[in-house]
């Protein structure tokens, strides 16, 4: 893996922006789940709070089409950063009035806005990454970028538990400050690529036609969807396990998430070194992840949970580097935001339904049984690789 000093200065700024953004989003995600569950004692409503941030991602393909044809990507990035720094102030107003209804409405609304603006930024980052990185740096760049993102997320999860101890109001005030800081690197990024002048409809058609001709991209989206179901459900289930199952304070949820993130960081580092067939590597990752998640249902201590949490993180971290690298190789600069948006629409958007699904599974079965349900689903999904022969044979 290349040393980070060898990367373009603009890529470093992009990583810094992504890291601060990820820190803020991770903190916000855990905090809203904890607060809603604390105030309402309803896992479904907490799952809704978790999932609503991903609702705008259902429209990511359309956002990507607009970003690909936009000449002022930097202006869009700045506007998105300002909006997500300002809108969560409504939550503070809800706490000021001490109104639970206003707090819940503002949390859900802010979650939607954060999801929308983050979607815009993800499409812009994807386009800029393709332009800035040299081809020989695709794998190492993906590895470093994901490592920084996961470290930032781990910090967000860890510190959110600490911040919650000082009060809900201060937690949201901190998140607002983080999003404001994330704006700074954007002002120093300059790019040279200029998109073709085409209509929005033509931009959409080009993206659809590209995916129709490259079946491996669609197959990759389906695999990504499965991995994102894990992300979407694991949040609400882990928090419910800590708060309701083990009757422990928020700091223990932070410890579990931080351990999971450490695993992702390690996996991202290892992913930069992994070589072989995409299919063989993926089957091993999916089966291992399913077994590890299933094993959590039989554990009786929060400290035992840390082992499978880290191992699952390692497996998913490796997978993400491999899939990101593959996409950088396949997709051209002028289509990157559209294809990245399509990934969000068809895979990352799964976290909206899976966040709610996670809460529903807990309500219908139990917290422990929910781990078995998710684990078995992941293992069964490996059957798909018998049909994804083209993607299976590709090498990384």
From TrEMBL:
InterPro entries hit by this protein: MFS (IPR011701), MFS_dom (IPR020846), MFS_trans_sf (IPR036259)
UniProt keyword list: Cell membrane, Membrane, Transmembrane, Transmembrane helix
Compartments, as annotated in UniProt: Cell membrane
Classification via Pfam families: MFS_1 (PF07690)
Residues spanning the membrane: 12-37, 43-63, 75-95, 101-122, 143-165, 171-189, 220-244, 250-271, 278-296, 302-323, 335-361, 367-388
Keyword NADP appears in the UniProt entry: no
Occurrences of domain Major facilitator superfamily (MFS) profile (ranges): 1-393
GO molecular function, one term: transmembrane transporter activity
Superkingdom to which the source organism belongs: Archaea
Presence of the UniProt keyword Membrane in the record: yes
SUPFAM superfamilies (UniProt xref): MFS general substrate transporter (SSF103473)
GO cellular-component term (any): plasma membrane
Topology in the lipid bilayer: Multi-pass membrane protein
Chief location bin: membrane
Record's protein name: Major facilitator transporter
């Amino acid at each position: 893996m290349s040393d980070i000093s060898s990367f373009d200065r603009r890529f470093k700024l992009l990583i810094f922006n992504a890291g601060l953004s990820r820190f803020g989003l991770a903190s916000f995600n855990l905090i809203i789940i904890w607060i809603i569950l604390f105030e309402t004692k309803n896992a479904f409503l907490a799952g809704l709070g978790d999932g609503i941030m991903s609702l705008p991602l259902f429209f990511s393909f359309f956002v990507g089409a607009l970003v690909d044809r936009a000449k002022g990507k930097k202006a869009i990035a700045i506007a998105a950063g300002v909006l997500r720094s300002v809108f969560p102030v409504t939550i503070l107003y809800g706490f000021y009035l001490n109104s639970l209804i206003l707090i819940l409405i503002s949390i859900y609304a802010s979650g939607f806005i954060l999801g929308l603006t983050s979607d815009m930024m993800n499409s812009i980052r994807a386009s800029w990454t393709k332009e800035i990185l040299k081809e020989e740096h695709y794998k190492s760049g993906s590895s470093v970028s994901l490592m920084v993102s996961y470290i930032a997320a781990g910090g967000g999860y860890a510190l959110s538990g600490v911040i919650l101890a000082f009060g809900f109001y201060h937690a949201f005030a901190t998140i607002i400050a983080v999003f404001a800081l994330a704006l700074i690197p954007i002002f120093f990024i300059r790019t040279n690529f200029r998109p073709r002048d085409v209509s929005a409809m033509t931009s959409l058609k080009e993206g659809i036609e590209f995916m129709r001709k490259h079946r491996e991209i669609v197959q990759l989206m389906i695999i990504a969807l499965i991995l994102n179901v894990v992300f979407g459900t694991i949040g609400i289930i882990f928090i419910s396990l800590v708060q309701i199952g083990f009757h422990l304070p928020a700091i223990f949820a932070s410890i579990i998430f931080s351990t999971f993130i450490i695993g992702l960081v390690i996996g991202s580092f290892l992913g930069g070194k992994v070589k072989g067939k995409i299919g063989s590597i993926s089957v091993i990752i999916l089966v291992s992840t399913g077994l590890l998640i299933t094993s959590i249902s039989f554990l009786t201590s929060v400290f035992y949970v840390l082992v499978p949490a880290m191992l699952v993180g390692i497996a998913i971290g490796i997978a993400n580097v491999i899939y990101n690298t593959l996409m950088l190789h396949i997709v051209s600069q002028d289509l990157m935001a559209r294809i990245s948006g399509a990934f969000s629409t068809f895979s990352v958007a799964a976290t909206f339904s899976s966040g709610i699904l996670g809460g529903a599974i807990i309500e219908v079965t139990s917290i422990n049984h929910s781990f078995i349900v998710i684990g078995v689903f992941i293992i069964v999904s490996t059957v798909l690789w018998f049909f994804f022969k083209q993607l299976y044979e590709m090498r990384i």
